[in-house]
């Protein structure tokens, strides 16, 4: 998932690829709240997720890209587990 996050930041938000490391924070990459919201919505749409109501996703300026990727991985796994449990 980290690679997908990095690719989205490079292509959609023009973040230099050399700045994209798992330890880089959202704040260090100078992503404003609107950019962060756009990134979250992109992954919510792509993976059919709901990462938080009212913009409370748990992702903020101090979050690292590794943490963002882990949050997305966890959300995808939870959705898949819920879907598997709902099957008759």
TrEMBL record:
InterPro entries in UniProt: ACP-like_sf (IPR036736), PP-bd_ACP (IPR009081)
Domain Carrier: 1-76
Protein name as it appears in the record: Phosphopantetheine-binding protein
Annotated organism of origin: Streptomyces gamaensis
Pfam families: PP-binding
């Amino acid at each position: 998932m980290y690679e997908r996050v990095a690719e989205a930041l490079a292509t959609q938000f023009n973040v230099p690829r050399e700045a994209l490391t798992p330890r880089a924070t959202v704040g260090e990459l100078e992503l404003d709240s609107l950019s962060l919201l756009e990134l979250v919505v992109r992954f919510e749409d792509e993976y059919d997720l709901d990462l938080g109501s009212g913009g409370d996703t748990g992702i903020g300026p101090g979050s690292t890209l590794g943490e963002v990727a882990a949050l997305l991985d966890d959300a995808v796994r939870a959705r898949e587990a819920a879907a598997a449990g709902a099957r008759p």
